Amino acid sequence: MSTQTKRRGDRKHTPKTKMIGLYKRAIQDAFHKLDPRIAVRNPVMFLVWVGTIVTALVTLDPNLFGTVTADPNQQRLLNGLITLILFFTVVFANFAEAVAEGRGKAQADSLRATRSDTMARKVLPDGSTQSVPSTALRRGEQVKVIAGEIIPVDGEVVSGIASVDESAITGESAPVLKQPGTDIASSVTGGTRVMSDELLIRITADPGQGFIDRMIALVEGAERSKTPNEIALTVLLTVLTQVFLIVVATLSPLANYVNTPTTIAILISLLVALIPTTIGGLLSAIGIAGMDRVAQFNVIATSGRAVEACGDVNTLVLDKTGTITLGNRLADEFIPVNGHSLDRLATIALASSLFDETPEGRSIVQLAEKLGAKLDFQPETTEGVEFSARTRMSGTNLAHGQQIRKGAVDAIKGFVRSRGGSLTPELDATYERVSKLGGTPLAVCQDSEIYGVIYLKDIVKPGIKERFDQLRCMGVRTIMLTGDNRITASVIAQEAGVDDFIAEATPEDKIDVIRQEQSQGKLVAMTGDGTNDAPALAQANVGLAMNSGTQAAKEAANMVDLDSDPTKLIDLVTIGKQLLITRGALTTFSIANDIAKYFAIIPTIFSAAGIGALNIMGLKSPQSAILSALIYNALIIPALIPLALKGVEFRPLTADQLLRRNILFFGLGGVIAPFIAIKLIDVILPFA
Amino acid sequence: MLQGWIQIALTLLIVVLITPLLGGYIARIFLGERTPLDRLLSPLEQIIYRLSGIPVETEMMAWQYIQAVLFSNLVMAVFVFTIFMFQGLLPLNPTDLGAPTWDTALHTAISFITNTNQQHYSGETTFSYFSQVMALGFLFFTSAATGIAVAIAFIRGLTGRPLGNFYVDLILSITRILLPISLVGAVVLMAAGIPETLSAPVIVPTLEDPTVQQAIALGPVAHFEIIKELGENGGGFFAVNSAHPFENPNGLTNLIQILAMMAIPTSLIYTYGIFANNRKQAWLIYGMVFGIYLVFIGVATIAEYQGNPAVNALLSSPQPNLEGKEVRFGWAQSVLYAVTTTGTMCGAVNSMHDSFMPLGGAVLLANLFLQIIWGGQGTGTAYLFAYLILAVFITGLMVGRTPEFLGRKIEKREVVLTSLLILLVHPIFILIPGAITLAFPEQLAGITNSGFHGLSQVMYEYASAAANNGSGFEGLADSQPAATALWWNLSTSVSLLAGRYIPMIALVLLADGMSRKPVVPMTTGTLRTDTGLFTGITAGVILIMGALTFFPVLALGAIAEAFQIAGGI
Fold first, then answer.
1. What's the maximum distance between 2 C-alpha atoms anywhere in chain B?
2. Which residues of chain B have pLDDT under 70?
3. In this complex, which of B415, B451, B518 lies closest to A235 when CB atoms are compared?
């Protein structure tokens, strides 16, 4: 996991240079967000904002809400300081949100740079081309794009073969080959550049609704709506705020009754200290940062809801090829038959694959050379025979007319029989054995003599078994889908450590598996790229489409992976969980903090009631206690911004282990930390 | 000292032994399984169903259930109010009592229908035997049964079952639980010396001066007493409640009363365990509540045992605080009774809570604030699980999944309902009227003690009303004909109604919503709620939430008073 993650982490959308400007802009935005129309969206911080205004008023006139006995100038100073701290509490919360948003905006800017209003060559029905602005293009029309030009809008290749540089959206510098017909390679994205040759493209999206446009809107947060979980948490925080509003509002008559009257500024300070400003101020930043973390993995999520759903996923439905295995079968072993020696078989196998440029062929050559096999003829004198679906074999014709072939065992048997060769049961036994091991047996022959079998093995990606173990620990089940037969599938499944597998799977099986899991109340995530994956991607709770996939797949999915790496689904589960954990941890921390704030403020402001002994922190004076608690309350927000943006470190542990760790750190820590911090601030403050 | 601790320990041991028996029995009743009394009671219930026309088989939807609760309770309250107002015309009125003032009648009707039994009157001089038995005694059964029915509906919903039929559950609660235990209990209490008679008060010459005559109030007390305790009602037949020698004459009756108070709230937790098929969780929660309960008993007992330093200085030896306590019960049985009655929302008293040491009083107040140290008849158990849901929501995120309880996701609706139920209703209907009263102490309160203690007295009254407890710190001029009685009767009525029905509506809606949610299967990634760790976290959430809301009231009331007394002022 580590090496892959690091590689991905390094390649961020936001260039480093822009980060400095980002903070500048965030500071500006923090003040812009003081606009009451924006501020009211966050009820907790809005209340602090209202409190700031009231304390500002009593700074101007301490007797505004009834005569205060203390020295008015001292009152003014205290009220002024309270106002200042409250104001910065609001600004810090705004800043946290602005920083998180800023990262998305920076990303959007770099995406927007790729979108240009260039001229495009629209192909008219008569076949001639006409130069039009790209914004005038409409869905269904066709355009011609030649080397060096930017593809104006999203579309499907109708004809032509060309290499396209998609680095603008994927960050991958190697160009990709685009051609018509095939599901995957025929879709092109607006904003990418044709490097060679030319393409005729049928437009699939109107301008402004293309893939990049949607991406920009999403990362900018323009379409960001609160997720269900965020809404539920906001409700809880609002109720808590109302509770404390009642507690503090009713405190005044209580205090008067026992002859320890207090001022409105102090009551507001108490209120702000008690309401959950820490989580209230960081909540939206956590959500935005979650989306951003996904984006840094080069995945575009269509909504925050999709990211959260990742954390809840119970089952991953994974394609074998490309996700669990490397995608190519590689030669693992040569098994001689009919009494031939291993060396002889290696030599024949080497000769058979001389012209085979497929990864399988290359791996056969590699294995043969490793075994010391050498050609006993001049390669120039020979002629390659390409694989065809009809013959199901490939090979080499030697100068003297010998024909060396390798291919499916059935096909080779036919080839040998047609040349009068005899077949032995040993071959069938070997074939069975290799099949049972989950491998693909290829027979090798020269003319009428079979020399043996090449064991082609599906190579499970390194480290994937450990990832699945981690997932299992987190309670996520993995199901492997493969077109292979049961035996092959079961071997790979065991080797990779998946929990279940479906062999000989059709695209319909995919959707059936998803429905079946969902009927048990589970959330299912899957990856896909082809058009026939689209229904399953739509059915799954989390559908991750490959950017190299078809438009249909991308539209059906709720996330698109720009790197087209299906293994990322596993990382997304982690990100989703991390997002929820961060939210829970900071909520717990915020509420736990209240104990210390109570112990700082109540005993000191009501010391006349004889409860000074509860001032266990030994704070100097009521003024100092209130200011210390408020300063702590304000500073904890920026102090936790990095944690909110980065997320609480996630380890693949069981729920109980995670809970124990986090409750110890954020729960108990949240109780203890403010006692220490408030005491420290109190010591530093010059107030007597 | 030791004897007192042994008394407490033995009583609690019996409680723990009763729990699985009664809890299992309650579960069997409401799961429709066979119970020993079937042959006797089934025909009786059939007759009731037929006469009342209850569609037995109909499962109620959430709002139907709520309507049934509210409608039935309204009808019963009006019925009882009418009896009070016309008691002068009704029979069984040997002392010829007339109608009480309208506000006393209203407050009493509301107080008893809400299972609170806050009394702003003296039973022996206000209500006739007819009113006591037919009105108050009637509500003893129905208000307790309403609580049990709602708790069962809540447990059903939480465990994925339909809510059931309110009327059927109400009747079953009475015929299968309250009535059989009360019948046996009343006979035992009679045997132990509690009167059960319809004869008029006995007039006797006093020993000091034979020319002065004293009326000894009597009445049908024994049957009244057992359901008073068993149903967490708590309204005394006489003014001084279970401190009266005819309500609670000796150690045996005191023990029976404590056990009766504890029996149903403790057992319902076990009943949940059977419904959820998770007895481990039930015992863990039971253990958590028991733990807090023990701490509370410990604090109050030590405070009372050490006594008042000012009094001890006069006596020149440390003595337990016996002010306001019956000598026949002593400090141990008085403290246990007080902590239990405030914890279970019974509200019966065998000692004067007002006279407790400040920390003892703080414990009683804390019980009213938290509402779950066993909690009210049915509602306490439901609140407990609402707290659990809240704890799941706050901390459950920390395992990286949308929080779920019993496999059902906790979403906006659940958070709205639980936080409203647990966090908001209680402070609103305690702190706001309390603050208003304290803002105008002369005009509204009529407080006997000023300062910190007066603050506690006022807050206790509203906490007792909102928590549907009914006990009083007393010391307030809250009975007619005091000038402040009208304010007390009306303002506490608001707290009584809000504290009873808003949470009940929320509970039913919560249960209904939970029962409809798809169940997410358990995996190792699921937060288990039946572990010691999670139960401990729940305890933390309960204490922190309770402390955060009511810390100022305790600080400016009981805690300040404790420091004051310790400082010898």
1. 82
2. 569
3. B415
Give, in words, the CATH class of A119-149+155-204. Answer: mainly beta
Contact A246 B531 (CB under 8 A): no
- Asked if A603 reaches chain B (Cβ–Cβ under 8 Å), the answer is yes
Q: What is the DSSP string of A471-514?
A: HHHTT-EEEEE-SS-HHHHHHHHHHHT-SEEESS--HHHHHHHH
Which residues of chain A are in CATH 3.40.50.1000 domains? 300-324+461-562
Question: CB distance B555–A614 less than 8 Å?
Answer: yes
Separation of alpha carbons A512 and A506, rounded Å: 10
Taking CA atoms, B291 is separated from A104, A175, A487, A589, B389, in Å, by: 50, 68, 57, 25, 20
User: Which residue has 């104990």 as its token pair?
Assistant: A595
pTM: 0.86
A581–B399 C-beta distance less than 8 A: yes
Long-range contacts of A397-401 (CB under 8 A, 24+ apart): A398/A351
* Shortest alpha-carbon distance between residue A574 and chain B (Å): 9
Q: Residue B148 has which token pair?
A: 């049990």
Q: What are phi and psi of A82, to 5 degrees?
A: -60, -45
A606 Cβ under 8 Å from any chain B Cβ: yes
- Topology at the third CATH level for domain A329-455: Calcium-transporting ATPase, cytoplasmic domain N (3.40.1110)
Of A29, A213, A319, A529, the active-site residue reads: A319
In B, which residues are within 8 Å of A576 by CB distance? Answer: 400
The answer to whether the peptide bond before residue A359 is cis (omega within 30 degrees of 0) is no
A618 burial level (CB within 10 Å; 0-12, 13-18, 19+): exposed
Listed by number, the residues of chain B in 370-399 with a beta carbon closer than 8 Å to a beta carbon of chain A are 393-399
Cα separation, A512 vs A533, whole angstroms: 12
Evaluate whether B99 touches B87 at the Cβ level (below 8 Å).
Answer: yes
Neighbours of A173 (CB within 10 A): 8
Which residue ranges does chain A devote to CATH 2.70.150.10? 119-149+155-204
H or E element at residue A317: strand A315-319
- Give A300-324+461-562's CATH code, choosing from 1.20.58.340, 3.30.300.30, 3.40.630.30, 3.40.50.1000: 3.40.50.1000
When CB atoms are compared, the residue of B394, B524, B551 closest to A602 is B551
Q: Identify whether the C-beta of residue A434 lies closer than 8 Å to the C-beta of residue A440.
A: yes
Q: Are A146 and A198 in contact (CB under 8 A)?
A: yes
* DSSP-derived 3-state class of residue A119: strand
Contact B520 A656 (CB under 8 A): no
**A319 is a catalytic site residue:** yes
| Cβ within 8 Å, pair B560-A239 | no
Distance of CA A105 to the CA centre of its chain: 18
Q: How far, CA to CA in Å, does B400 sit from each of A100, A276, B154?
A: 21, 21, 28
Tell me how close the Cα of B513 comes to any Cα of chain A, in angstroms. Answer: 15
> Chain B contact for A668, CB < 8 A?
no
pLDDT digits (tens, 9 = 90+) for A543-582: 888 877 777 788 788 888 887 777 888 888 888 889 999 9
Q: What is chain A's Cα-based Rg?
A: 34
pLDDT in tens, B377-430: 888 898 999 899 999 998 888 888 888 888 888 989 999 999 888 889 999 999
Whole-number pLDDT of residue B262: 95
Q: Enter the tokens of residue B512.
A: 């209904």
Residue B531: alpha-carbon gap to chain centroid? 28
- Give me the residues of chain A with pLDDT under 50, please: 1-17, 222
pLDDT of residue A8: 40
pLDDT at A287: 85
DSSP assigned state of A124? P
For B166, the enclosing helix (H) or strand (E) is helix B166-172
How confident is the model over B22-38, as pLDDT tens digits? 999 999 999 999 998 88
For chain A, residues classed under CATH 3.40.1110.10 are 329-455
